[in-house]
Amino acid sequence: MEHVRDYELKAFFTYVVDVLEQLDVPYMVVGGFAAIFYGEPRLTLDVDIVVDMKGRHIAPFVRAFPIPDYYVSEKGIRDSLQRRYPFNVIQPTTGAKVDLVPLLHDPFTRAAFQRRQRLEYDEFGRSATFITPEDIVLAKLIAFRETGSDRHIRDVRGVLTAQWGELDLEAIRRGARTAEMLDRLEELFKVAHRETEGQE
Fold it and tell me: Which residues on adjacent β-strands are paired with residue 89?
């Protein structure tokens, strides 16, 4: 796959969001793309979107991505919705990829989905529905707990530093306590506080 350019990924993201909204599919932008939106820039090769997609949405969704300009599998979507695992849409000419994750029934994901918020994401005033910054911090902490990848911790630091002073810290603490990640969160709070205060 070719290295996808930032503007190509954003253009593809915009198109996918437009399709979801035209079909009235509730969705929430999550993952690295959301962490970058709230935090510090870094390279990401795809976008993750949680979707509450139903069977009636599948056929019109597939029609919106005709071959050869795009690749999406109708059977893959049906299997994904039944088994609750991600499916993707790919733009072969650019290598851009959007991963769509069926809405899960775990308490955190359901609550985060209810709290999602609509925000402008570019200089043209286009908007989309994103996970909240508090919930992306918690999601990344949970992902770190499950995978051990330091990328998730870097994303948390980026969001905390960029959004410090605007975050509901107590809400994040409550979620981190439930996820058994409170000690790690408090360490990251201290780092973000020092960085925003300009201290050594």
Answer: 98
CA 186, CA 177: separation in Å to the nearest integer?
Answer: 11
How many residues are listed for the chain in this entry? Answer: 200
Q: In this structure, which amino acid lies at residue 72?
A: V
Each residue's pLDDT expressed in tens, for the chain with a length of 200 residues? 344 578 889 999 999 999 999 999 999 999 999 999 999 888 777 899 999 999 999 999 999 999 999 999 999 999 999 999 999 999 999 999 999 999 998 999 999 999 999 999 988 889 999 999 999 999 999 999 999 999 999 999 999 999 999 999 999 999 999 999 999 999 999 999 999 886 44
Cβ pair 16, 98 in contact under 8 A? yes
Q: Is residue 35 within 8 Å of residue 131, measured between CB atoms?
A: no
Are 155 and 35 in contact, with CB atoms under 8 Å apart? yes
**C-alpha 169 chain-centroid distance:** 20
| 178 shares a domain with 153 | yes
Q: What is the rounded distance in angstroms from the CA atom of residue 152 to the CA atom of residue 178?
A: 18
What one-character-per-residue DSSP string does 71-83 give? B--HHHHHHHHHH
Does residue 163 fall inside a structural domain?
A: yes
Phi, psi of 54 (to 5 degrees): -110, 170
Same domain, 24 and 115: yes
- The whole-angstrom distance between residue 48's C-alpha and the CA centroid of its chain comes to 5
- Domain span holding position 190: 133-197
